[in-house]
Amino acid sequence: MTQKDISTVDHTLITELYQRYATTLLKYIYASTHRREDAEDVLVEVFLAAFKYKGLSQLNEKQQYAWLISVARNKTIDWYRYSNRHVQTSLEFIFAEDMYDTDERLPEHAMIKKEEYALLQERISRLPELQQEVVRLRFIAGLRSVEIARMIGKTEGAIQAALWRALRALRTLYQNEKDRGNSGEF
Predict the structure, then answer these.
(1) Is pTM, for the whole model, over 0.70?
(2) Domain with 16 in it: what CATH number?
(3) Which of 34, 122, 149, 170 has its Cβ near the most Cβ atoms within 10 Å?
(4) Domain range holding 87?
(5) What SS3 class is residue 16?
(6) Dihedral of CA 92/94/95/96: which sign?
(7) 181, HSE (Cβ side, Cα atoms, 13 Å)
């Protein structure tokens, strides 16, 4: 990006968008990458794209958020393509304080939250790809079914059905593990 490109972008708008949505976007991206440093790298790419997009200021707040989520989704897909071609070394950090909205600061709580989150992610990863994406967009990004449908290119009914099936499958997974005595509950 050239200095001229940067100077044409409203820095205040980008700053406000970052302050408002960075945490939500990071959670959304992390749900796919499972590594904080990768999620942060993708988040940087999202906001670099925001700097480059001159039409961002013409969108209303809801449209700006939808645009950021769409870019985050596309950049995460790009990350997958890249990561599948390159070997990566994990430098996993515990960051429960940032990833979970909690006042509990004790190390035990952070570890429990991290383990619960890892179990949930593992269970979500068992779902078909569409259901995984719908769950992340709905519960991590906070989008409504109609917004998800528009973003993915499916009908709202198809998105609602995928979400219902995903939640039913997750419920079944939790119940089966609970029945076997391996619920992951602490």
Answers:
(1) no
(2) 1.10.1740
(3) 149
(4) 1-91
(5) helix
(6) positive
(7) 0
Residue 68 maps to a domain: yes
The predicted structure's pLDDT at residue 59: 92
Asked if 186 contacts 115 with a C-beta cutoff of 8 angstroms, the reply is yes
CA atoms within 13 A on the CB side of 166: 25
DSSP symbol at 59: S
Compute the distance between CA of residue 185 and CA of residue 181 in angstroms, rounded to an integer.
10
Q: Are 27 and 60 in contact (CB under 8 A)?
A: no
Let me know: does 175 contact 144? Beta carbons within 8 Å: no
3-state secondary structure of 123: helix
- Give the CATH number of the domain where residue 142 resides: 1.10.10.10
Q: At what angle do helices 11-33 and 61-85 cross, to 10 degrees?
A: 50
Q: Which residues of the chain have pLDDT under 70?
A: 1-9, 84-106, 182-186
Q: What is the pLDDT of residue 93?
A: 39
Spell 4-24 as b/e; 16+ CB within 10 A means b.
Answer: eeeeebeeeebeebbeebeeb
Alpha carbons within 13 angstroms on the beta-carbon side of residue 162 total 24
Instruction: Please tell me the distance from the alpha carbon of residue 84 to that of residue 67, in angstroms, as a whole number.
Output: 26
